[in-house]
Amino acid sequence: MAIYITDECINCGACEPECPNNAIYDGGIEWAYADGTGVSGVFNLVDGQQVDADEMNAPVEDDFYFIVPDKCTECQGFHEEPQCAAVCPVDCCIPMAEQLQTMEEEFEQSGEEELKQKIQTMKSDKNLIESEERLLKKKEILHV
User: Fold this and answer.
1) pLDDT tens digits, residue range 80-128?
2) Domains and CATH numbers, the chain
3) Which of 18, 21, 23, 137 is the 20 to 30 A CA-CA neighbour of 82?
């Protein structure tokens, strides 16, 4: 699982230094898996995708802080709770699963069948939050 920063973020920056995995970035900043970690060279992500740890990646979000899902462990092994959520003054750091549930509720109320199908597809794909590409698709739905 991963934590997601909603568009309610006020860009205070409190979360970034608290992340033990260096998974949080300011909006518009390119990132790499190697940033602040001991990872180097080519390695496999949980979903089997091979990536170069030093390769720079496009920002996940341009306007506010974002969390790279593949780097986020929800602080498991470090803390009892996600530290970004613990320090966030506006409670905009939420579990990805909770965000998907909220999206589903909103779209069910809207009655738009196409959006409902996209959510069903997202829910059935157990690797959704393990891939940046899939995160961007979800982000696209959020901004509809």
Assistant:
1) 999 999 999 999 999 887 656 666 676 666 666 666 666 666 665 544 4
2) 3-142 (3.30.70.20)
3) 137
